[in-house]
Amino acid sequence: MAMELTIESILESASGTIFAVWFLIGAALVFWMQAGFAMVETGFTRAKNAGNILMKNLMDFCIGTVVFILIGFSLLLGEDLLGFIGKPGFDIFTAYGSFDWSNFVFNLMFCATTATIVSGAMAERTKFLSYCIYSGVISALIYPIEAHWIWGGGWLSQLGFHDFAGSCAIHMVGGISALIGAKLLGPRIGKFTKDRDGRITGVNAFPGHNLPLGCLGVFILWLGWYGFNGAAATSVGQLGSIFLTTTVAPAIATVVCMVFTWVKYGKPDVSMCLNASLAGLVAITAPCDVTDCLGAIIIGAVAGLLVIFGVWLLDYRLRIDDPVGAVAVHCLNGVWGTIAVGLFATNAAPGYSVANAAGKELTGLFYGGGFELLGLQLTGVAAVAAWTAVTITLTFAIIKATIGLRASEHEEIVGLDIEEHGLASAYSGFMMGTSLMTAASGAATPAPVEKPAVPVEDAVPVVVRAAKAPASDVRMTKIDIITKQSSFEVLKTAMEEIGVTGMTVTQVLGCGMQKGRPEYYRGVAVEMNLLPKIEVEIVVCKIPVRTVIETAKKVLYTGHIGDGKIFVYDVENVIKVRTGEEGYDALQDVE
Q: Is the pTM of this model over 0.85?
């Protein structure tokens, strides 16, 4: 018996150590989610603001760490004062030897996530200084106090309110802050079309500049969510169940969103489906430990529809500009996930421990538990929402009245990268025109120009053939071919076969919309879109123009939209700079 007790105590001790280590690994996974938020937000917005967005996501965590050390942690997990706040203190400095280091690190990661959510909805038009200030306020006061109610022994936890990993405490709070901030800030320039009386008559889509980056961010977030939801698990069974629900809900949400957008818009919407994955993750965050697979399926299905509704609601009814869908993902699904506890909580889940103030076990409405737990969840949603709305509105109002909340019109049009951070481009070396801009600003030295060995007029004498008209009288034609980049090689080969050996090729962006084939981005019709093209310029004199045109049409034609267009212009004269030749003679080495 003694040996059995010893073995059991060893196993229990080992299990406790393992889960303590897993708790910190989970915290690291939550920290990695900062990268996911940065990638999603950057990919879903425009390139001219990419550096600004990356800086904001970095400073969310760094500023949050500073204020969480000073006051946030003690307000969250300090000694309970009347169920409202934790007792402020500096144990991290005065009693470091006995300080709860793991809890500090884990809760810091959650705190930083709350502030990050707000960034997306207010992207591309917020002053960087203003952002730093309200991000600090969220991490220092708004989040720690309401989180104390839920996780720090406050009044909601005493009643039996349940939010295992933060649908309410983190995502709904961040989403409400984002909603109010975006409303007070106003839409981006050009987001809504207005008539002469100022009434909004249409919604314009601003497609994200890098969806692959946004997709990478979603996968990073999904991976991090296993730590977000699972870090506080206390048994292998509970951890496995949490991993299952955290996988099922976002997968179902994404499938439902794909089917809905496919039916409604004719094509499955990529960015909306990425948002749906996040919506499913947000919705399952509160009930991840208390629901079963069927509950996770239903929660995910509703989340997949709710995110679509949320984007539509903001664009077409509330007229609020949310570039990344933060409100639809975090606010609406944060509310839904919190309420879902009251509907789908089942004591069949491993480690189930939901009970009211009297210690009576509570289960969800759809699992025979009645309305008590649902009522507690609704009470928590209402209380936390009211606290967040009041405090964040005051914060934004004070900032707006003092230093200002919104960037200037010029800063917004040019881009916050260059205006706020002196960054010409977050993609230096990759974007067209960057080197020209740099040279023009004096940051680069132009290459030296070689002087000719002899004057231009003496390099090659211009000979006017008696049998021909003067150079300026010979008919010359320029043919402009605009087509897909992938078609260049076949076009170049065809031109060489008919004798054209010289052409100018430029990478351009084509802007247009084919009639009868509407495109949608996040449920909004894209009226005009910029697509990468090439422009090939050819000037001919001896080669028949019709030959060039027919050859180009033959090799470029596929029968699909986007094959290209051909423009034909008369050319008054051509002068070869190196030799001084003009007209017909100037073209003879390229025809």
A: no
